[in-house]
């Protein structure tokens, strides 16, 4: 990690972060961790935190949780959050599937966001993609009624897979007829900017828990 990232980690991790593998058995009590009751938004794969920090700052009325495996990325997110003076962020380091399976109660989440997950473009690697039927079902069970799964990708073929998988999940319904309009409030990520430069179209999907 950079010096700045390490300092941010040292200042904030103990209060704002936890390792998924070190969590006590059972569900995370988000209200206790945040010190307030508010809708919980979970972002899976927050990367280096540039977009995430802006989303957190723009939504002070939600309890925003970011789960990411990359330690320097989480440290950078903590650094960005500190610069924006946000108080409604908590971070978890580890596997999102383990978190959802073992530590999130059914119906606990208002929204799950997955922006530009690794597309694993080679066909032999498609099985490594995050958005698969079993995973989408798991997410759907953790959403409260009316809760939203929001996906975005700039890989056309992965977008089609996401649409097919989510459409086949009986607990979810598409809020739109196919792709969702790109929300103005979602900042442009570096991946999305690269896609624009490489003339790839980004797609958003918004599915709601029935």
TrEMBL record:
<feature type="binding site">
    <location>
        <begin position="189"/>
        <end position="192"/>
    </location>
    <ligand>
        <name>substrate</name>
    </ligand>
</feature>
<keyword id="KW-0808">Transferase</keyword>
<feature type="binding site">
    <location>
        <position position="118"/>
    </location>
    <ligand>
        <name>S-adenosyl-L-methionine</name>
    </ligand>
</feature>
<dbReference type="Pfam" id="PF02390">
    <property type="entry name" value="Methyltransf_4"/>
</dbReference>
<keyword id="KW-0949">S-adenosyl-L-methionine</keyword>
<comment type="function">
    <text>Catalyzes the formation of N(7)-methylguanine at position 46 (m7G46) in tRNA.</text>
</comment>
<comment type="pathway">
    <text>tRNA modification; N(7)-methylguanine-tRNA biosynthesis.</text>
</comment>
<dbReference type="GO" id="GO:0008176">
    <property type="term" value="F:tRNA (guanine(46)-N7)-methyltransferase activity"/>
</dbReference>
<keyword id="KW-0489">Methyltransferase</keyword>
<dbReference type="InterPro" id="IPR029063">
    <property type="entry name" value="SAM-dependent_MTases_sf"/>
</dbReference>
<feature type="binding site">
    <location>
        <position position="95"/>
    </location>
    <ligand>
        <name>S-adenosyl-L-methionine</name>
    </ligand>
</feature>
<feature type="binding site">
    <location>
        <position position="43"/>
    </location>
    <ligand>
        <name>S-adenosyl-L-methionine</name>
    </ligand>
</feature>
<dbReference type="InterPro" id="IPR055361">
    <property type="entry name" value="tRNA_methyltr_TrmB_bact"/>
</dbReference>
<protein>
    <recommendedName>
        <fullName>tRNA (guanine-N(7)-)-methyltransferase</fullName>
        <ecNumber>2.1.1.33</ecNumber>
    </recommendedName>
</protein>
<comment type="similarity">
    <text>Belongs to the class I-like SAM-binding methyltransferase superfamily. TrmB family.</text>
</comment>
<keyword id="KW-0819">tRNA processing</keyword>
<dbReference type="GO" id="GO:0043527">
    <property type="term" value="C:tRNA methyltransferase complex"/>
</dbReference>
<feature type="binding site">
    <location>
        <position position="122"/>
    </location>
    <ligand>
        <name>substrate</name>
    </ligand>
</feature>
<feature type="binding site">
    <location>
        <position position="154"/>
    </location>
    <ligand>
        <name>substrate</name>
    </ligand>
</feature>
<feature type="binding site">
    <location>
        <position position="68"/>
    </location>
    <ligand>
        <name>S-adenosyl-L-methionine</name>
    </ligand>
</feature>
<dbReference type="InterPro" id="IPR003358">
    <property type="entry name" value="tRNA_(Gua-N-7)_MeTrfase_Trmb"/>
</dbReference>
């Amino acid at each position: 990690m950079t010096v700045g990232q390490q300092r941010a980690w040292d200042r904030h991790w103990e209060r704002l972060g936890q390792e998924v593998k070190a969590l006590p058995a059972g569900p995370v009590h988000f209200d206790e961790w945040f010190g307030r009751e508010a809708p919980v938004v979970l972002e899976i794969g927050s990367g280096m935190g540039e977009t995430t920090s802006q989303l957190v700052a723009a939504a002070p009325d939600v309890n925003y949780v970011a789960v990411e495996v990359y330690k320097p990325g989480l440290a950078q997110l903590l650094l960005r959050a500190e610069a924006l003076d946000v108080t409604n962020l908590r971070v978890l380091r580890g596997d999102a599937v383990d978190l959802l399976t073992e530590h999130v109660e059914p119906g606990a989440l208002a929204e799950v966001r997955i922006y530009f997950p690794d597309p694993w473009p080679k066909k032999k690697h498609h099985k490594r993609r995050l958005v698969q039927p079993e995973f989408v079902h798991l997410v759907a069970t953790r959403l409260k009624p009316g809760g939203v799964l929001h996906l975005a990708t700039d890989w056309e073929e992965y977008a089609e897979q996401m649409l097919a998988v989510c459409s086949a999940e009986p607990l979810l319904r598409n809020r739109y007829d196919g792709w969702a309009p790109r929300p103005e409030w979602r900042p442009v990520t570096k991946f999305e900017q690269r896609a624009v430069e490489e003339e790839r179209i980004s797609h958003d999907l918004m599915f709601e828990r029935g």
